[in-house]
Amino acid sequence: MNAEIRYLHHSAFSLETDHHFLIFDYYLDVPKGCGLSKGVVDPEQIRDKNVVVFASHSHPDHYSPRIFSWRKTIPTIRYLLASQIHPPEDAVKIAPNETINLGDLSVRGLESTDEGVAFLIRMDGLCIYHAGDLNWWHWDGEPEDANAEMGRRYREQIDTLRGEKIDVAFLPVDPRQKQNALLGFNYFMKTVGANAVIPMHSFGKTEFYEPMKTDPYLKPWREKILFYQNRGDIMTY
To answer: Which end of the chain is more exposed for a tag (fewer CB within 10 A), N or C?
Structure first.
């Protein structure tokens, strides 16, 4: 099945199929009233869709309680949140190493190297991976043993995905990591792979991804990378 993917901001995306409208890690709810074409969720635009909202953890660049205001417009909306989030109302929660079946989709939680979970979602014949903050966070200036432990923990989680046939993967490529930004991305693609892969966690600095288009190290999977520039941009799978 085909999917339409829209960049909302940072690690927030929507993914729409014929039967579902998924929203991941949404928090930037401004400017008001401009709608999906500008990367802002207007519940009136999606009120007739089968909406499922995911939040990988409670950091304010991945989650806002304002997402629950959408229920006024979309009574059938569902929320699936990392278990460490304490929402203002009921929601389905998922912990690391847990799998939840919602009937029309199933979701597996992986343990983040930061907080919360990554999501592996099966629905409509597709397998979708959204990493949240599960990444190889290697920081200049950190003790060598701390960076080594981070790499070990990341590889341990990604290794559990070996053999999965992933259609679309959303992976952190954070500008703050500079020359280390592709460590997690490259390990994931070598170990697991995906038919389409979308870099994220840019804080809106999408120009950081431009060199990826010509980086010789990425040549084996460059054609699989879906790029975007502005909030509201659409990618198709």
So the answer is: N
